[in-house]
Design brief:
Two copies of one chain form a homodimer.
Chain A (H helix, E strand, L loop, with lengths): L18 H8 L3 H7 L1 E5 L1 H9 L4 E6 L9 H9 L4 E4 L2 H7 L8 E6 L17 E6 L4 H14 L3 E5 L8 H6 L9 E4 L1 H10 L3 E5 L5 E2 L9 E5 L8 H6 L2 E4 L11 H16 L1
Parallel strand pairs in A: 2-3, 5-6, 5-10, 6-7, 8-10, 8-11, 9-11
Antiparallel strand pairs in A: 1-4, 2-4
Helix pairs in contact in A: 3-4, 6-10
């Protein structure tokens, strides 16, 4: 152990063949995440937000050689105080378990938690504000959408007919930990549409075919902004159920924006109109 | 040759050891791109936009087994008519040279072209509208920024103190070919600031410290929206030279948006105010 180490029960892991190291690597795969109902959280900022979001940790790995700041030990102690196994690993082992370009020496295995539509509460004092993400494929986009959802203050992100599970390490990374602060529900499109209808929430769909642009319609009431896949946009099902269809002006040769960029535009237009 | 093949001079490449195959793989590296002043363009949509953007091709590889549509042969013929070497490759070879998840059977080597600030013309009839991207690191972000720049109709993207070269294959991919439709200039920050000042263009910087939000300032005049790195935002140099500082409301725990999402918000706010 180095002078920087915290005292802990486990011994430092130096072997790349350690079963725990292998388990971390396996958790990059969806099948293993689904089976074990666990997932990976890497990085100081992400773990700090996970602590704030009351995530349950199972195991924390740390490599002091990789630390970038000086607050890592406080964070480790906070997680350790939750009776979580805290394990120091060698530089080489951390570089094996890390999935980032610039590892900062902290990576945890945590328990998945799943919300249902019934867990969502409509806030009093302001109109409901939801985001629907239908079948988004790229983890980076889903993570970026979470980050914008947090920033724009949506009540929840409803992921419909999921392609990418929200516990994909690249979702966690691209969300910079906002996965733990934005309520996220994974359901079928049918369930989501029924729930929104029951709560009289206006579904707003973005499509190049719409006559009004997104800045020309009233978004100050109860709204759910619905966004579709990278390739094809929203499915016919959502287009038919949408109460409002809006377009985003496209001045160039491309016919669409990146889905996370388009989502951010819509969310911030709600915010602009309501402020 | 399969029945689908076009007639061409070259023979079909089936060997993974072919020097041309190796050259394609090498072009994923910046050093090789810089040395040869060439780069890769993969995909039907990207190549179509490259043709429209008058890109000079050196070599086109195609694998009919991967084709997703029926217009590939027309595109190949168009490129072939420019006296470009067109080479059929086997499925296995294409999968080696492709850098995408879903190859669509078309990949070219093209010549880099470089614009300077002197090549930019200020359009008559409407105020200048530029985007500054300072030291963006992730190719996916730079590509997404290009896509939004095309969509919002910016006059040019000025990449300052580059970290990622615009010819990185992931920039081309994330830009979905808008790299060939948006004028892009790579210069130092000093040169860009001097040029903007000479043309009396208002520099707008985004910073959490600003008192006004981006929707509260007048963006209808000549503007250059300046965006900084993923980690640190704009450098001190740009902050000091900015005529306007604006913030983006952040309602959650995160202190910033993804840089491409934030850029899109700013560009579309210019568009909204001007329409």
């Amino acid at each position: 152990m180095t002078g920087q180490s915290l005292s802990h029960e486990g011994k430092m892991i130096t072997s790349l063949q350690s079963p725990k190291v292998k388990q971390v690597v396996r958790l990059r795969e969806k099948r293993e995440r689904d089976k074990t109902q666990t997932f990976l959280i890497e990085g100081y900022r992400e773990l700090t937000r996970a602590v704030a979001g009351a995530v349950s940790f199972l195991m924390l790995f740390y490599s002091p050689e990789h630390f970038l700041g000086s607050n890592e030990h406080t964070l480790i102690q906070t997680i350790k105080d939750q009776r979580v196994e805290v394990i120091e690993v060698s530089r080489q082992v951390f570089e094996k378990i890390s999935y980032r370009d610039r590892p900062d020496g902290l990576l945890a295995i945590a328990k998945q938690t799943h919300l249902s539509l019934n867990d969502l509460t409509l806030k009093k004092g302001r109109p409901p504000f939801f985001l629907i993400a239908e079948a988004i494929e790229k983890p980076g986009n889903l993570g970026s959408i979470l980050r914008s959802s947090d920033a724009a203050g949506v009540d929840a992100l409803i992921v419909c007919d999921r392609c990418t599970d929200i516990f994909n390490p690249n979702v966690v990374r691209a969300s910079v930990g906002t996965l733990f602060t934005v309520p996220v529900v994974e359901v079928s499109s049918d369930e989501a549409i029924q729930w929104l209808s029951h709560h009289h929430i206006t579904i707003v769909a973005t499509t190049p075919a719409a006559k009004s642009t997104y800045t020309q319609v009233d978004l100050t009431g109860p709204v759910a902004i619905a966004m579709g896949t990278e390739q094809l946009g929203l499915s016919q099902k959502w287009m038919e159920k949408a109460h409002l269809q809006v377009s985003i002006p496209m001045c160039g040769v491309a016919d669409s924006l990146n889905v996370a960029a388009a989502t951010t535009l819509l969310l911030y237009e709600v915010l602009r109109q309501r402020s």
